[in-house]
Amino acid sequence: MKLSRVLVVVGLLLVSMLAPTVKAQSDTLIIASGTDIENTNIHLVTSSPSFSVLEHIYETLFSMTPEGELEPLLAESIEATADNVYVIKLKEGIRFTDGTPFNAEAVKANLDYMLDPENGSAFRFLLVVGGEPAQVEVLDEFTIQITTKFPFAPLPAHLAHGAYAMVSPAALAQGRDFLASNAVGTGPFVLSEWKRDEEVILTRNDDYWGEKPALETVIFKVVKESGARLVEIQSGTVDVAVRVPPADIPMLEADPNIEIMITPGLRTIYIFFNVTEEPFTDVRVRQAVNYAVDVQAIVDNLFEGAALVSRAPFAPTIFGYAEQEPYARDLERARALLAEAGIAEGTTVTLYHPTGRYIQDALVADAVRAQLREVGLNVELQTLEWPQYVPQVRRPKPENDIQFAMLGWGVPTMDADYALFALFHSSEFPPGFNGAFYSNPEVDALLEKGRSTLDPEERRAAYAEAIRIIWEDAPWLFLYSEIQVTAVRKNVEGFIVHPDESLIATFASKR
Amino acid sequence: MTKFILRRLLLAIPTLLGVSFLVFASIRLVPGGPAVALAGELATPQMIEQLNRELGLDQPLLIQYVNYLGRMLRFDLGRSIRSGLPVVEEIQTRLPRTLLLAVVSLAVSSVLGITIGVTAATRPNSLFDGGSMIFALLGVSMPIFWSGLMLMIFFAVLLPQWLTSIGFPTGPILPPTGSGTWQHLVMPVTALAANSMAIQARMTRATMLEVLRQDYIRTARAKGQKERIVIYVHALRNAMLPIVTIIGLQFGTLLGGAVLTETVFSWPGIGRLLVDTISFRDYPVIQGTVLTISIGFVLTNLAVDVLYAYLDPRIKYS
To answer: According to the model, what pLDDT value does residue A213 have?
Structure first.
């Protein structure tokens, strides 16, 4: 008996000696990500995992810090020479990793690529103001000028979006096929290898113009299954694991080698009321629903607390955020408001919602259904898969007879204009994104002021007022914004999870 | 025999055409197109229209299909909508991985499964028989996403912890996910083989029991043949037909990618590609992948038929 046990141990030891050194090395950081990149063309990808990887290779003119501050990156400064004319000075002496110099011509080539509808970038609209693409001109070797149809304050924030990163013009000229699997930028890392569905390997750019990273190699490893990501981080075969299921947070917190990072996200989940369809034409009904639904309970029970109850129509780190008093659950008040509005007990309303698109989406819809029953509203659920769902909820009038529907809205530019204009301005009715058909001239005026005024304080004030009115008009059932839960090994320092879902390894090091 | 194989290969063409048309038509019947899936919340009607035009999705279905066939003749399966890469390339990078996993796990499971089945059949109702059939039942019943995770936790977390605690500090014994070295193969193969082995063992046991009761076995024993020869040469060969059929089917299924295994162990195979692209409505990749899988099925079936003739000389193809 004893001998066999010894044999087992010896056998296992032999196996462990045969096993490769799967433990990560000290100059290599391995990130277990849930999804592979789409391809390496940063102008055309759309998913945050793609941007996360490619933003180590490519850089934008401006960048948004995790705290929501706009900083110049490849740009030196920006100045408005007229209300709608912006002059951007570029940093000098920077080269792409293929040796091509970074200059105004390079910027123009990239912006033109983005603005050419033939190329089909999903983020082209960020530089299309009032239906007209921005005009880009080269003033001298390191100065460019951008002219928009009308004054457009969010411009630098839009240029901070990953899709507007700078690709070597020589690489751009090689065309789409080349760009889909090659990456030539100015960033702190270069693309070393992309094994599809497996991993992306980045190595340090030793000629980087800025402060060089401490890490030699960063690997984004695709581990789809969340349980497998947890095994990887616990066994130390990876240093970072993304998208930790909330239910597993306590288990990882108990592990002395692992730290849990909680980062607010930029995506807010909401249910909009179609204010042109009964019974939600009446503001009292909309408010009643807000009073009847206990969002905190949804967050606690379906998200283990890993979501933020909305106190504005968008998430806290975004510029222009103005906190409101949430509609705390008050069934008496909800019933009274419904009675005042003449809504009979047992009135049936239909809630559209997607399934599998947002975390717990179908369960949230069901929770809303159950809670509204308590105030006498009978909710029928229309559950649809995402590709089928979007065309449904974005039908224009008069076909659109949706009463209320769930959606999410991410704000990658971290600016209130992106968060509010498309959703609440009366020019944005479906097929635009104002699915509520919400129209309030006061809000329209404030949103227009916010996008045309350059002074940040004036903008902030305009948005605060707009948010206050929207909150009272309640064209939405305000729900929650998402939170990112990331597990990091304790020997890793300086790793950043950005609210825009980017994972930044540039400043990380390992002990 | 050559003639038979050639005829079967020719017959495969209409089969594959049928499959390709069914896939082609059915994915287009599913509501929601690639443009919406691609651009998410941001898809504008103009973008959808433009994308549909670019992809030729604005044309009548039949014309689209004829164009597709025309390109297929030139081995051009189009381009992935999601990644922009040629479909042929997308499949090329994954197919060898899927083949590797399928061949190794089927080899392991066949050797073990048939041996266990034969041994159980020769000792019916013994302890070994009962034990191995319970084991087989477990193998069939354990879902792979569960057994896979359990294997991972054992080899990458629990075992190293225990070894470290008794004074042999070590990292993970086996890498939990990924591919590339033989160590990466161990866990996915174990998980997959446990499943197919169980079915093979039960099948072998059943057919062997039947064959062993036949007259010619009694004759073989009566003329003093060694028991080993009786079982492995006389009996097993005749019992092999249904077993080969099962293995052929299993291989065909594995070629379609062991989706769950590939997902749990992050194995970059063809099944995962298919599932990922279905949710993206990536028509060209879906079509190309299903076509590849069907070709695999047709070839496997052919191989099984040829094996029949080899195993049972009474079967002749003309």
So the answer is: 95
Q: Are A383 and A368 in contact (CB under 8 A)?
A: no
* pTM score, whole prediction: 0.83
Contact A504, A495 (CB under 8 A): yes
Question: What residues in B contact A266, CB-CB < 8 Å?
Answer: none
Residue contact B47–A199, C-beta within 8 A: no
Cβ atoms of B137 and B225 within 8 Å: the answer is no
Q: What is the C-alpha to C-alpha distance for residues B57 and B51, in angstroms, rounded to an integer?
A: 8
Q: Which of B30, B45, B173 sits opposite A19 (nearest CB)?
A: B173
Residues A168-196 pLDDT 10s: 999 999 988 899 889 999 999 999 999 88
8 A C-beta contact, residue A481 and residue A317:
no
B236: domain CATH number is: 1.10.3720.10
Is A225 within 8 Å of B266 when comparing Cβ atoms?
Answer: yes
Higher pLDDT, A507 or A17: A507
Please list every residue in chain A whose beta carbon sits closer than 8 Å to the beta carbon of residue B176. Answer: 228, 231-232, 235, 237
Nearest to A231 among B50, B153, B166 (CB): B153
Q: Quote the tokens at residue B273.
A: 């590609």
Q: Find which of A197, A395, A429 to mutate to test the B interface (most B CBs within 10 Å of its CB).
A: A197
Domain that holds residue A417: 264-483
Give me the residues paired with residue A486 across strands.
A261
What is the predicted pLDDT for the residue at A1? 43
- Among B146, B152, B183, most A C-beta atoms within 10 A, so best to mutate, is B152
pLDDT of residue A17: 54
pLDDT tens readout for residues B66-87: 888 888 888 888 888 877 788 8
Q: Would you state the pLDDT for residue A106?
A: 96
Mean pLDDT (chain A) is: 90
CA atoms of B241 and B243, how far apart (whole Å)? 5
DSSP secondary structure letter of residue A319: B
CA distance linking residue B315 with residue A272, whole number of Å: 69
**Which pLDDT belongs to residue A385?**
78
Residue of B nearest to A118 (CA): B50
Range with top average pLDDT, A79-88, A208-217, B173-182? A208-217
B66 and B18 in a common domain: yes
The answer as to whether B1 is a domain residue is: no
Q: Does the residue B2 lie in any domain?
A: no
DSSP state of A59: B
Claim to verify: residue B111 and residue B190 sit in the same structural domain: yes
Q: How far is A180 from chain B (nearest CA, A)?
A: 7
Domains contained in chain B, number? 2
Q: Report the C-alpha gap between A270 and A282 in whole angstroms.
A: 19
Residue A294 sits in the same domain as residue A238:
no
Examine the pLDDT at A299 and tell me if it is beyond 80: yes
Judge: A235–B43 Cβ closer than 8 Å, yes or no.
Answer: no
| Residues of the domain holding B107 | 93-147+182-311
Q: Which of A19, A221, A408 sits opposite B174 (nearest CB)?
A: A19
Pairing of strands A199-204, A217-222: antiparallel
Cβ separation B268–A235 shorter than 8 A: no
Residue B293 located in a structural domain: yes
Task: Name the CA radius of gyration of chain B, rounded.
Answer: 24
- Percent of chain A clearing pLDDT 90 (strictly above): 64
Size of interface A-B (CB pairs under 8 A): 161
pLDDT band at A160 (very low <50, low <70, confident <90, very high): very high
**Low pLDDT (below 50) residues in chain B:** none
CA distance B268 to chain A (A): 5
- Asked if A144 and A88 touch (Cβ cutoff 8 Å), the reply is yes
pLDDT (tens digit, 9 = 90+) per residue, B250-290? Answer: 888 887 767 888 888 888 888 888 888 887 788 889 989 98
CA angle A261, A265, A267 (to 5 degrees): 160
pLDDT averaged over chain B?
A: 85
